[in-house]
Amino acid sequence: MNNNIYSILRILFFLFILYCSTNCNAEHAKVAIIIDDIGYRQTDSAALSLPGALTYAILPHTPFGPTLAQQANQAHKDIILHIPMEAENGKKLGPGALVSEMDEQAIRASLQASFEEIPFAIGINNHMGSKLTQLYAPMAWTMRYLRDHKLIFVDSVTTNHSKARKLARYYGVPSLSRHLFLDNELNQRYISGQFAQLINQAKKYKRVVAIAHPHPETIEALHYLIPQLTRHDIDLVGISALLPLANTTEPPSLAE
Questions:
Q1: What's residue 13's pLDDT?
Q2: Under a CB-based contact definition with an 8 Å cutoff, are residues 33 and 176 in contact?
Q3: Are 214 and 56 in contact (CB under 8 A)?
Q4: Among residues 140, 35, 134, which one has the least CA distance to residue 87?
Q5: pTM for the complete prediction?
Q6: Could you write out the three-class secondary structure of 36-97?
Q7: β-strands 78-85, 29-38: how paired?
């Protein structure tokens, strides 16, 4: 009798171990969707109606940025600053921009002024920046400021030659990279196709960062696309929930 009980217990223990090996350690994939370019238009407020834990990237010193940031913060969304950085094509940057002619003091003063306007922002990502993110000194100075203020950095990856993420790691700044742009083309077919890629990458890599913009076409599409994540057992989370990325494999981050 005792031998039978022992055999049953061994079988039950084996079944428990087998179950845990396939289920106990299973973890939902997580994606963060950042809505960039918030602040210049009152219609940007439509982005705040999107369901789930979106992250909002606010352009500094814009007419509607502080108000929309406050509203999103009150709704417990992650807020970052969308800091303009010098591009290779010489595009106009707008207020709060960082350019290669600045020294460290100027970069720190500019970032400080942007954060004083929206003090609850948890970090930054770059608006444009295909030139500046390739330069060692400006990126090092930026990361030192973020480190000193316990802030995060998200590389929008506007160039494959960005040094930003590497320097963020060197200075101990929690950092992530953008993996997908969802709305480089403003039509429902393209956005839906990019969202399908987001789902596929999330299933494969478990942690994915996407960027979109407050265009009417994007807002309309995301209203019906975001609920698809739940059906695929994927959690939509604020950008802070993806930090740190220890022991995870990231999808490739390609400039687009």
A1: 58
A2: no
A3: no
A4: 134
A5: 0.87
A6: EEECCCHHHHHHHHCCCCCEEEECCCCCCHHHHHHHHHHCCCEEEEEEEECCCCCCCCCCCC
A7: unpaired
